[in-house]
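Two proteins were folded this term; both appear here.
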Amino acid sequence: MAHNILVTGGAGFIGSALSLQLVTRGHHVRVLDNLSPQIHGANPESSPLFCSIHDKVEFVHGSVTSRADLMKALLGMDMVVHLAAETGTGQSMYAIQHYSNVNIGGTALLLDLIANEPFPIRKIVVASSRAVYGEGKYVCPQHGNVFPLSRSAEDMENGDFEVHCFACGVPARLIPTDEETPVRPASIYGITKLAQEQMVLTIGKALGISALAFRYQNVYGPGQSLSNPYTGILSIFSSRIRNGGSINIFEDGKESRDFVFIDDVVTATVKGIEHEAPLTGVFNVGSGVATDVLTITNTLERMLGQTVPVKVSGQFRLGDIRHNVADLTKVQAVLGFNPSISIEEGLRRFVAWVTDEGVLADRYEESLRELEAKGLLK
């Protein structure tokens, strides 16, 4: 069944790929996006992401913080996929009001209009994040499953980066984090994503419409900004390698993430959008595999055919977590989603795309200086 779908942030990395897939599947897609220069560059209307969708979707240039823009974008839609948000853990720790205004305020305004205006919305899908969990789920040899609080700056300054059981202090072992894990966001970004999903789920239930929150893990792939220093490490490191710059690996390089390829993220999201039975809930979307940062760095160097100075510095950012890996049991059972692209295959596709892109000047060092100036990089 075809739907009229509004995708906020639909010109972004995930949004553009999702919008194109929805169009291919016969849906009418309207995109609302502010074409942020941080994502789209100095000439946003010529950016590859925007150009990929501009003649395939109905486009509204505007912001989710504008009532007039949202009123225009919502007209005639029956579903909303809410992706518009400021992203980046480090930046969120000092751009606090901005993240709150866009992520929380924009979501509140969107839901206010859905609740009070005669828009026939029957489903809302929101992009949440693994950041809502904080450190996530671990197991202690003595105390079983534990859900640690944020690591202390004192421990990390002494070179102890691992997560410890809060009851006995021994190192705890990472296990896949499921949706029943207590939410303990360790950054302003994580707090805003949790607020977004809770508002969407609460209002969806109150209005009797389906509401889904997808807790995306670390999404990567073709189309990801290579010049934005607040994006994921794959883009940052690949740009550094191609520019011949050095790479500063935080902590001890053994910190790990669940890297999930963009195509798998789109597949999972489409399954949620096209699920016709009433449905409300949160779902992890990831690969189900944890990969450490040193492995990522070495693989990128190998695939790009370049080596650069790599320093494992022991520095750390306040708000970062140690590890994460998603438990996908729920999304597999309810939506039938199974990731299909391994980290090796995903990186191969990512590097093939990166190699075809021009070598861009990166602003990574600038972003680190910002963090240091704010006292957030130790």
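Next, the second protein.
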Amino acid sequence: MMQSFKMASRENRENSTRIQINTAARKITVGEGYCTIIAGPCAVECEESYIDMAVFLQAAGAHILRGGLFKPRTSPYSFKGLGRPGIDIIKEARQITGLPVATEIMDVRDLDILYDNIDILQVGSRNMQNFSLLEELSRLDKPILLKRGLSATIEEWLLAAEYILNGGNEKVILCERGIRTFEPYTRNTVDIGAVPLIKHLSHLPIIVDPSHATGKWHMVTPIAKAAIAAGADGVMVEVHENPDQALSDGKQSLTPENFRGMLKQVADIAHLEGKIVI
């Protein structure tokens, strides 16, 4: 019987999808056989700190920069990002490092500024079932990083991806970022089992975000290693030069030194799994 997520299913496409993300300086592949590292602060806070971090991450071996401009925060009093004024900072980091950049989109009205300046558009967990947004993104020729909703089943997640695929955009990357359960000791509960299950059900690439999944910096490296061992095509982690002073999600952010250590350990696991660490 054909799965409800027809286009995302392996019944529709047996071979795993690989997605190319190209800049003038780099060609990055996300998908089967590769271990892609996306890293950066949760939010772009100011020009100097973000550019310095971007240069460090490029030298350390990250493949894609992350940095939020529009932040969906639980409290309206929390830092919600620089918004549109921050786009020039991301453009500068992209130009200096040659690395592609991923950032979250919350509102289709921001597409006019994000489309030409961002390489990967991220749909956060709170917007996984924002179907109007998904349908708009389905018309783009742009990779979409689709995070799992905080209470979403696997089928609901893949059906959200189906909205994007059904509109003609085949460049979908799934991201497991933990789900909400009864456990209070972590920010979310990491569903490592979702990785091999997605690999069985779908041809789409999948990465894991151990920063949001755990909410604790000391758990990021072990979960990143577990994700790659389980078959994930990469990880997305948060890195900040001074996590105690971060305006967003400092408790789950790695220091630059800890990022270097994580990258080495993840690369070791990736090599054992036969993955290319670009």
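Residues 69 and 86 are 6 Å apart (CA to CA). The chain has one domain: 19-272. These notes refer to the second protein only.
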